[in-house]
Design a protein that fits this description.
The longest helix has 28 residues, at 213-240. The chain is mainly alpha-helical. Strand 1 (106-107) and strand 2 form a beta hairpin. The chain has helices spanning 16-33, 42-53, 59-70, 79-96, 113-117, 119-142, 147-161, 166-176, 183-208, 213-240, 243-246, 252-255, 261-265, 267-285, 293-304, and strands at 106-107, 110-111.
């Protein structure tokens, strides 16, 4: 059975056909990367495939591909880093939804992995997805003639999901429940929890494309703004969105007494911050001209998405 292809990002955008083609590419690459259902241990493999192939925006693989496009390197081997970063994202969602973390029963409009397969199997599925991500990336970099670049890519992804990135951000998030945070503290938390993997997606695309350090710094400014904008929009949707549309439980953050952008600076200021971050992202990639059209569309999408 072919993988499910997510909904279109923006049917009215000139970049939509190219982005849709990249989504299809990512879906099929992910399908190929995952163990077949019939291969033992079958229940673990079913849980892994359920966590990854059940829809999703595929923003992170798209950022890998779009970065290479901006650099004129579409022909480079990009499926491995695109899959690796999405597998890390999928593992993080499985673990975040567990009762010991965010305790959510709905993800992407479906029951969460632990609801379907049980907590123990969900934990194992997350662990296996994380390991598979590095196996895929190491396999691709091992075929590269540039060993230094391969090692840099592995280091980039590992830092993004470790104590300085996603895991550290989740720890800060758990510690913040029920206590006030300053705006700076909130932005730092989300720069780790959400932004680190988004920045890694762009950096992996840049590294795979042979970009120099100065170019990667410019792209990092773009990715930093997009990562924070994504979270600001997420916080707004938690207040204004409907569970059936956003695909997860609306109002969850407020019910859990978690600090968010609307709770700290208000809804109007959150929307203004979203606009500011989008403008910063677009300004960062302006030097790339028309080749940055896909990155520009993804920045706009992160700020206006409905789910």
């Amino acid at each position: 059975m072919p993988p499910t292809v997510p909904n279109r990002l923006n049917p009215n955008s000139e970049s939509e056909p190219a982005l849709q083609a990249l989504i299809v590419r990512a879906e099929h690459a992910l399908d190929r990367s995952l163990p077949p259902v019939g291969q033992p241990p079958t229940e673990l493999h079913r849980a892994m495939r359920y966590a990854v192939l059940g829809g999703g925006k595929r923003l992170r693989p798209l950022l890998v591909y779009a970065t290479a496009h901006a650099l004129g390197e579409d022909g480079r081997p990009l499926d491995a880093p695109a899959c690796a970063v999405e597998l890390i994202h999928a593992y993080s969602l499985v673990h975040d939804d567990l009762p010991a973390m965010d305790d959510d029963a709905l993800r992407r409009g479906r029951p969460t992995c632990h609801i379907v397969f049980g907590e123990a199997m969900a934990i194992l599925a997350g662990d296996a997805l994380q390991a598979l991500a590095f196996e895929i990336l190491a396999g691709e970099t091992g075929r590269s003639a540039d060993a230094a670049t391969g090692i840099a890519m592995l280091r980039c992804l590992s830092r993004a999901c470790g104590a300085e990135g996603m895991a550290g951000g989740q720890a800060l998030d758990l510690a913040a429940v029920g206590r006030p945070l300053s705006l700076g503290e909130l932005e730092h938390m989300h720069a780790c929890k959400t932004g680190a993997l988004i920045r890694a997606s762009v950096q992996l695309g840049a590294l795979a494309s042979g970009a120099d350090a100065a170019t990667r710094d410019v792209l990092d400014r773009y990715a930093d703004a997009v990562g924070l904008a994504f979270q600001v929009r997420d916080d707004i949707l938690d207040v204004e969105g409907e569970s059936a549309v956003i695909g997860k439980t609306a109002g969850k953050d407020a019910a859990a007494d978690k600090p968010t952008f609307p709770s700290i600076i208000g809804m109007d200021a959150s929307r203004a911050r979203l606009t500011e971050l989008t403008d910063l992202a677009l300004a960062a990639i302006a030097p790339f001209g028309d080749r940055a059209c896909l990155l520009a569309e993804l920045a706009r999408y992160a700020a206006r998405r409905a789910h």
